[in-house]
Specification:
The complex is a heterodimer. Chain A is mostly beta strands. Chain A is about 5% helix and about 60% strand. Chain A contains 4 helices and 31 strands. In chain A, about 35% of the residues are buried.
Chain lengths: ~550, ~160
C-alpha cells in the first residue's frame, strides 16, 4: 500500500539537481574542500529548491555544513507565493538587486516571503524578511583575505506595482529596511532605519529601447540610471548615464562601511556603466565602482564590418561628484559638485576606451577576438592643500594599455587548438604635484620596482570535442609591487621547465585538464600556480590570494 | 558526519527519483513581457541555451545555434537563448544579438533563478527538452566541434533518419 502510494506520489514529483565538489591543496595553504548539492523539485504547482553545503574551508567565505539555502514556490493562475531564500531584482537594481555571487563571496539574498499577483496589465508584489550580509573589512578584528568578518542584519519589507503596456512598462516601488549595524566602538548594535522610494520606466520598440530608473533614499540620497539604445540597421548606438549619490565620504573614509552608515545598501547592486571584462589582465584593473558617490556615462557602438566580423567601440567615463581638499586643520572638505564626470584627479576620475573585433573566418573554422583597451583610474587621493594661489596634492593612479586576443582553430576531426594571448603595459603609482615657490614639482613614483609593469598572459590549449580539453596557462610579469616581490616563492615543475627561456621568478604556470565523462559529469584537474590579485565581478572587487604550486580537483554532476 | 551522510542520502534520492521533467517555469523576454516555458514545447523540442555577453565560449557557439534554429525551425524545433547578464550589464544584450542577426528567441535571467531551477552550472549550459517536457540532452561548456553532437541530438529529438 505504501509502495503504491509512493509510486503515485513520485509519478507526479520530479527531482533533479547538481552536485559540485572542489578540492585544492597548495604550498601556501590556499587549501579548500567544498561540496555543494542543489536539489530542484516540482510537484504540480509547487517548485522547491534546497542547497546543501559542506565547505571546510571554502575557497572564499565562511565555513558551512548543512542546509545553506531553500525556497518553496507556489504558482497558481495569477498568484505566486515564495517562501525561503528569495533573490529578486527591481528595475535595474537601483533599489533592489539580490544576487548570490560566489566568485566574490557576495550574497544579498533575503530569507522571508514574497506574494505576487499579476495580470497582463498590472502586477503587484510585496516581500519581507531578514537579510544577513557578511563582508570583509580591516576596520574590525579578525581580518582574513578569505573569510568575511563583519555581519550586518536587515529586517526588510517592500512592495512594487508594475504596469505593462504594449511598448511601455513602468513600476513604482518602496522598501524599508531596519538595519542592525554592529558598532565596534560601543560594541553594541546601532539601529538604522532606511527608506527608499523609486520608479522605473522602460520603452521597447523595433529600432530603439530606453530605460530610466530612479530611487530616492532617506532625506538626501538618490540614484539615477538611464540607458538608450538606437538600432540603425545592424548597427547599434547605446548611451547610459548614471548618477549615484547616497553618501559623501572623504577620501580617507571612502570604503569604510563599518563606521559610516546611511549610504547605499549592499542589496543596491546598481548598473556599473562600464564593460564587464572576461580578460584575465583586464579583470585585475577593473574599476571599483563607488555606489555611494559616482557619476558617469557609457557610450557603445557596435555593428558588423566585414565577413560578419563584429566591431565594438566603448567609452566609459566616471568620477565622484566633488573635488576634495584639506582645510587648515587637514580635515577633508568637498566643493564644486558636478553632474557630469570630471577629469580632475582630485575627483577620482576613471576612463576606459575599449575597441574589439571578433568573428569567424575560413568557413567558421577560425575564430578570433582582437581588442585594445586604454584604462585610466585614480584609485585614492592622499592630500590636496591650498594656500593662497598655491596648491599641493598627491594621489594614486593606474594607467594601462591592454591588448587581449583570442584565437581558436577547429580541425575536421573534432580536434581544436585555442590560443589566448594578453599583453598589458601598466603604470601604477603615486602622483605628487606642487606649485609652491621653491618646492614646485610634478612627480610620478612607481609602485613597482620599475617605472612600469609589463604583463603577459598566455594560454595554449588543445581539445577534442566533446570529450576533453587540456590547457597550459602562463601568467608573467616583469616586475611586481615590493610587497609581492618580497614574498619568496618556489617554482613548480612547469615554471622550472620555462626557466631556461626567461626569468620565471614572477611567472605563474598552471596546467588544466577537463574531461567530460558523460553528459552529466564533468571533471577538472589542474596543477600549478595561479597569480593572486584583485578579482572583480561587475564592479565589485576583492583580493584573491595566489594559489602556489598545488593541485585542484573539481567534479560537477547533474542528475 | 551526520550532515555528510545527509548530503549523500539526498544525492542518492535524487539519482533514484530524478525524472528529468522540466517544470513550466516563467521566462522573461527582452521587452519585459513573460512567457511560459511549456508554451514553446507545443510545436516541438526546444533547446535552452544559457549565455552571457561576457562569456567567450557562448559567443563562439551562438553562430551554430542560429544555423540550427534556421534549419530545423520548420520542423517545430526552436532555441530559447537565455542571457544571465546581471541588471548591471543588461543593456548590451540586444545590441549584440541585433548585430549578429541571430534569429532565435532571447530571454533574460538577471538573477540566475531560471538558470538554477534548470540545474545550470557552467557557461554555456545547453539543455535539449523533448516535446513531452523531458530533458533529452544536457551539456556544459563549449568545445569547437560540440555543434556536431548538438545537431545529432536535435535530429534525434526530431526523430530524423540518419
Amino acid at each position: 500500500m505504501l509502495g503504491v502510494f509512493c509510486q503515485i506520489l513520485l509519478a507526479q514529483f520530479n527531482l533533479s539537481g547538481t552536485t559540485s565538489l572542489g578540492y585544492g591543496d597548495s604550498e601556501n595553504d590556499f587549501n579548500f574542500s567544498e561540496h555543494r548539492v542543489d536539489l530542484n523539485g516540482n510537484w504540480n504547482q509547487w517548485i522547491g529548491w534546497m542547497q546543501f553545503e559542506y565547505a571546510k574551508p571554502p575557497q572564499l567565505g565562511r565555513e558551512d555544513a548543512g542546509l545553506r539555502k531553500f525556497r518553496l514556490e507556489y504558482v497558481k493562475d495569477n498568484f505566486t507565493i515564495k517562501l525561503g531564500d528569495i533573490y529578486e531584482y527591481w528595475g535595474r537594481g537601483l533599489m533592489l538587486n539580490m544576487e548570490d555571487d560566489q566568485s566574490i563571496d557576495l550574497d544579498t539574498g533575503l530569507r522571508g516571503g514574497l506574494l505576487q499577483w499579476s495580470s497582463d496589465v498590472v502586477s503587484a508584489e510585496v516581500l519581507g524578511g531578514t537579510q544577513s550580509i557578511w563582508r570583509l573589512t580591516n576596520q574590525v578584528t579578525g581580518f582574513n583575505d578569505r573569510v568575511p568578518n563583519y555581519k550586518v542584519e536587515h529586517g526588510m519589507v517592500g512592495g512594487r506595482v508594475s504596469f505593462n503596456g504594449d511598448r511601455w512598462q513602468g513600476s513604482i516601488q518602496f522598501l524599508n529596511s531596519k538595519e542592525d549595524h554592529p558598532n565596534p566602538i560601543t560594541n553594541e548594535n546601532d539601529n538604522i532605519n532606511h527608506n527608499m522610494m523609486g520608479g522605473t520606466l522602460h520603452y521597447f520598440a523595433d529600432n530603439m529601447d530606453a530605460t530610466i530608473d530612479y530611487v530616492k533614499k532617506d532625506k538626501s540620497g538618490f540614484g539615477f540610471y538611464s540607458n538608450a539604445n538606437v538600432f540603425l540597421g545592424l548597427w547599434s548606438i547605446g548611451l547610459s548615464y548614471k548618477n549615484y549619490s547616497f553618501a559623501t565620504l572623504p577620501p580617507s573614509d571612502r570604503w569604510n562601511f563599518v563606521n559610516n552608515t546611511g549610504g547605499a545598501l549592499t542589496m543596491q547592486q546598481m548598473p556599473t556603466g562600464f564593460r564587464t571584462h572576461n580578460s584575465s589582465l583586464l579583470g585585475k584593473i577593473t574599476h571599483l565602482i563607488d555606489f555611494n558617490d559616482e557619476v558617469g556615462y557609457y557610450f557603445t557602438l557596435s555593428g558588423p564590418v566585414f565577413n560578419d566580423a563584429l566591431f565594438t567601440l566603448e567609452w566609459a567615463k566616471s568620477s565622484r561628484h566633488n573635488e576634495w581638499y584639506n582645510d587648515i586643520q587637514w580635515n577633508w572638505q568637498s566643493r564644486d559638485a558636478v553632474s557630469l564626470p570630471s577629469s580632475n584627479p582630485l575627483m577620482n576620475p576613471f576612463q576606459e576606451i575599449y575597441a574589439e573585433l571578433n568573428g569567424y573566418a575560413m568557413g567558421q573554422k577560425f575564430y578570433y577576438v582582437i581588442g585594445v583597451v586604454k584604462t585610466e583610474d585614480v584609485l585614492d587621493i592622499f592630500t590636496n592643500q591650498e594656500i593662497d594661489q598655491y596648491q599641493s596634492y598627491s594621489y594614486e593612479s593606474i594607467e594601462a594599455v591592454t591588448i587581449p586576443t583570442h584565437f581558436t582553430y577547429r580541425f575536421d576531426n573534432q580536434y581544436s587548438i585555442d590560443i589566448l594571448f594578453e599583453y598589458q603595459d601598466k603604470k601604477k603609482g603615486f602622483n605628487t604635484f606642487s606649485n609652491f615657490p621653491s618646492f614646485g614639482h610634478d612627480i610620478f613614483g612607481s609602485l613597482y620596482l620599475k617605472e612600469k609593469q609589463i604583463n603577459r598572459f598566455i594560454s595554449v590549449g588543445i581539445a577534442k570535442s566533446p570529450r576533453w580539453s587540456a590547457s597550459l596557462s602562463v601568467d608573467y610579469a616583469d616586475t611586481e609591487e615590493r610587497a609581492v616581490v618580497e614574498q619568496e616563492r618556489k617554482n613548480n615543475a612547469i615554471e622550472k621547465a620555462l626557466d631556461s627561456i626567461w626569468d620565471t621568478s614572477l611567472t605563474w604556470a598552471n596546467l588544466e585538464v577537463v574531461i567530460n565523462l558523460n553528459q552529466n559529469n564533468r571533471l577538472a584537474i589542474s596543477y600549478g600556480s595561479l597569480r593572486g590579485g584583485v578579482y572583480c565581478s561587475n564592479g565589485v572587487c576583492r583580493y584573491i590570494q595566489p594559489f602556489e604550486n598545488g593541485f585542484k580537483f573539481g567534479l560537477v554532476s547533474t542528475f | 558526519m551526520l550532515k555528510r551522510l545527509f548530503i549523500i542520502v539526498m544525492f542518492l534520492i535524487g539519482v533514484l527519483v530524478g525524472q528529468n521533467q522540466v517544470p513550466d517555469i516563467q521566462l522573461k523576454k527582452l521587452d519585459g513581457k513573460s512567457a511560459q516555458l511549456h508554451s514553446y514545447l507545443k510545436d516541438g523540442p526546444v533547446l535552452i541555451n544559457f549565455w552571457a555577453t561576457w562569456c567567450a565560449p557562448c559567443k563562439k557557439e551562438m553562430v551554430y545555434l542560429d544555423e540550427f534554429e534556421k534549419r530545423y525551425n520548420k520542423d517545430g524545433f526552436s532555441i530559447l537563448a537565455i542571457s544571465i547578464d546581471s541588471p548591471k550589464s543588461l543593456s548590451n544584450v540586444r545590441s549584440y544579438i541585433r548585430a549578429k542577426k541571430y534569429s532565435f528567441r532571447i530571454f533574460i535571467d538577471p538573477n540566475r533563478q531560471t538558470f538554477k531551477k534548470l540545474n545550470g552550472n557552467l557557461m554555456p549550459t545547453n539543455i535539449l527538452i523533448g516535446q513531452d517536457g523531458k530533458i533529452l540532452w544536457r551539456h556544459y561548456g563549449y568545445l569547437p566541434g560540440n555543434e556536431k553532437t548538438m545537431e545529432a541530438e536535435i535530429r534525434a529529438a526530431l526523430k530524423y533518419n540518419f
